[in-house]
Amino acid sequence: MSRTLLLGLDGATFTVLDALMEQGLMPTLRRLCEAGVRAGLQSTVTPLTPLAWTSLLTGRSPGHHGIFDFVRVEQLAYHPHFRLATSSDIRCPTIYSLIGERGLRSLSLNFPVMFPPQPINGFMIPGFVPHRHLKRAMHPRSLYDRLSAIPEVSLKELPVDFEDERRSVQVLAPERHEEWIRFHIRRERQWSNVLHHLMTTEPWDLASVVFDGVDKLQHACWRFIDDGLFATFGASPWARSVRELCLDYFRQLDELIARAVELAGPETRVFLASDHGFGPSDEIFYVNTWLAQQGHLAWKDDAPVAPEGYINTEGMKAAAFLFDWSRTRAYTLTPGSNGIYLRTGGAAGRAQLARQIVVRRVMTREEAFPGPHSHLAADLTLVLRDFGFVSVTRSEAIVRTRRDVAGVHNPRGIFIAAGPGIRRGETVNDLSILDVTPALMHSLGEPVPQEFDGRLPVEIFEPAHAVRPAAAVPARRIHAPDEVPAEAAAMAAEGEATVMQRLRALGYLE
Ligand SMILES: [Zn+2]
């Protein structure tokens, strides 16, 4: 068994990182690749942050863990309602619980859907929690006061403050880019400071953190980060300064990776993984507009229309308030899930609708998310040409060209492993995000539960370390199906408008 460090880089892709490594901007990452194994990492069917990280932390596919979106959609009699998905919606134990029962201690920082925190054997600060909920988000609660007393930790800078609309990515005015990037540089440093504090003062077996500025910057600044794209337009001094700041973000991120790896020591195995990759998109598919044109959906008369070529959702209401429910049979509520819900029609209706849609792929929920909880997913899941997210807003055209090329999620993320027993300097075939959990369990000297949906990637280990220990850990449920603890209720009960505002701040609403 070996201590194990998991560094999550939200949305990281080798198309960006390889260029940065070649330019000498990420020497630590390059060293880890050279000293270890690298592979592309295939994300969940919908390459969306909450599903994908939950799969990585549980070793289970979304049909088993029950998270399909940032939100949980409840089908009410008259119209659907949604709330933020919380840890109470996760139907399988996380790796922290699994190894905690075996006496191993974990540090878990900034992973989504971990609120309210489970009482793990160790320390947890969930991600995506606004500052005003942060105190009750920590496990144990005393951690908040403890961190408050540390001069180099600023708890206010840990979360993205979703209440602050100025942080909104999609309406980022040119003069806001620099502030936005600097904000994320400071934030990553804060998470690194917390990690540093816990790694040096507490015993741990698995230390894990997500640096999510990678995703945030790529959403807002893809055209400044992508080398080829930047070359086509990047002449202005302003564009060059935005690009320099983006590069500085990655340079500083590399320093934080170095800091964590050094602190962990040479006997610790290091894993880097992203929840999904990133790529360019130059078009927007207005799925609800298409559904309306096909006669499946009706807008209320006062539903605002998206301005052409310019993404501006300021003042947009949650989609649910924009539909005339008496005449709506199929609809999409949120952009990230790319999911269409049907109110009537059953399997025949779904098949008929699926045949009409002109996208890369349309999957029924049983295809996309097989498992006992697939009924909680949307009826149909769309995979778009560029793997991006649909827009849920009203528009005059079904597909429009974006004013600027944007960064959107892509299924191919990154995987890097290095340390004792890991092969050196090899690139292996793409892994599944579901294979990371067995690798972590194996690294920790723990048996891989048979219920896991991935496989132990033996090819990343030296032969002597690759023996697969067989063991069955019984399937369990950590909560009764619809029980939402009071802890979760506070955040989950936030209105749909607030939830939409958060999604907008995260870059998922357009
Ligand atoms: Zn993500």
Q: In CATH terms, what is the architecture of the largest domain?
A: 3-Layer(aba) Sandwich
Largest sheet: 9 strands, mixed
Structural class: alpha/beta
What is the residue-averaged pLDDT? 87
What attributes does this structure have?
510 residues; alpha/beta; Alkaline Phosphatase, subunit A; 9-stranded mixed beta sheet; globular
Overview of this protein structure:
- With 510 residues, this protein is an alpha/beta fold.
- It contains 17 helices and 19 strands.
- The strands form 5 sheets. Strands 1, 2, 5, 6, 7, 8, 15, 16 and 17 form a 9-stranded mixed beta sheet that branches. Strands 10-11-13-12 form a 4-stranded antiparallel beta sheet. A two-stranded antiparallel sheet has the order 3-4.
- Strand 3 (71-74) and strand 4 form a beta hairpin.
- Helix 8 runs parallel beside helix 11 (237-264).
- The longest helix is centred in the middle third of the chain and has 28 residues, at 237-264.
Helix-strand blueprint:
Layout: E1 4-9, H1 14-22, H2 27-35, E2 37-42, H3 49-58, H4 62-65, E3 71-74, E4 81-84, H5 95-100, E5 106-109, E6 122-125, H6 134-137, H7 142-148, H8 177-201, E7 206-211, H9 213-225, H10 227-233, H11 237-264, E8 269-273, E9 277-285, H12 287-293, E10 330-331, E11 339-342, H13 346-356, E12 361-364, H14 365-368, E13 380-383, E14 399-410, E15 412-418, E16 426-427, E17 431-432, H15 436-443, E18 448-449, E19 470-471, H16 486-492, H17 496-506
Parallel strand pairs: 1-7, 1-8, 2-16, 2-17, 5-6, 5-7, 18-19
Antiparallel strand pairs: 2-15, 3-4, 8-15, 9-14, 10-11, 11-13, 12-13
The structure holds zinc ion (ZN).
